[in-house]
Amino acid sequence: MLVFTMHLILPALCVVAMWFSAPAWSVIWWEVFAITHALLAWPVYMGNWSWVGTPLRWIFPAALIAATYHSAGWPGAAVSVAAILVLVGFPLTRLRITAPRAQAIPLSLPFSEGLYYVGQGGHTKLLNHHILLRQQKYAVDFLRLNEARTRCLGLYTPHLDRYSIYGATVASPCDGEVTHVVDDSPDFIPPQTDRQHPTGNFILVRYHDSPDMYVLLAHLQQGSALVREGERVQAGQPIARVGNSGNTTEPHLHIQIKKGGQPDKWGDGEGLPMLFGGRFLIRGDTMRAANPSAYRETVSAAGF
After folding, report:
1. pTM exceeding the 0.90 threshold for the entire prediction
2. Is a pLDDT exceeding 90 seen at residue 194?
3. In this structure, what is the dihedral angle of CA atoms 204, 253, 3, 63, given to the nearest 10 degrees?
4. CA–CA separation, 296 vs 176, rounded Å?
5. Domain 105-302 falls in which CATH fold?
6. Pairing of β 140-145 and β 115-120
7. Minimal CA–CA distance to 188: which of 217, 158, 165?
8. How many CA atoms lie within 13 A of 235 on its CB side?
9. Is 80 exceeded by the pLDDT of residue 295?
């Protein structure tokens, strides 16, 4: 209900309030203007729009601009555009500029097909709850979008097969050696979780021939692993399927890369930032699976 309110009810109320606000440029108009634009900027900036449809993230600001035009004409619309740029455009641009790209490790998007949405990602705790844990810092949670640009059929369902990402093929995000495979944890029915085994089924891949960098892919489907410990893999090679094992509220793929720690452990070492197709991803970004050739060029240029 909180997500429904944040992503649909609140934005719609902001648009309606601005549409009927009058008279233009009065004290009351300015108060309504400030409240509606501030309230809408919050979910547009940090919301997870895969719940209700990713196009709505930008349709609502456009509707608010139209409502401001209705109440105050073109000057009002111009002020509305400026406010949205300041409240949403500037923070998002600042995130892009301050992203730790120089230290980021290039990876290939770990899927062979489909359109994917970043549910958790970035370098601020407002957009990525992983940032609070040293070994998970910069981790990314991927969801898959369906034709309606939502992550599942319904807002939140116990039926695993209604989540677009459930059962999706997971491809290796890099060349390297598989150091650890867990494949026997059950897939849970949302909202059940397994707090005793946070990652559930997972695969650890040593990044190229690095002695101390490991990529973790977690919450995999039980019995879906296609690789064994000690096996060498290439970027883009199918290695498992997305499940709902471990401490997860719904099917998604968790990926992180760590430096240091033990080669058969996921909960130690230090998390490193990642680049997918040359992009540092933050919550709300979408990316389509592609040939890993761009990743190989980036890796070669970086000297791995």
Report:
1. yes
2. no
3. 120
4. 13
5. Glucose Permease (Domain IIA) (2.70.70)
6. antiparallel
7. 158
8. 23
9. no
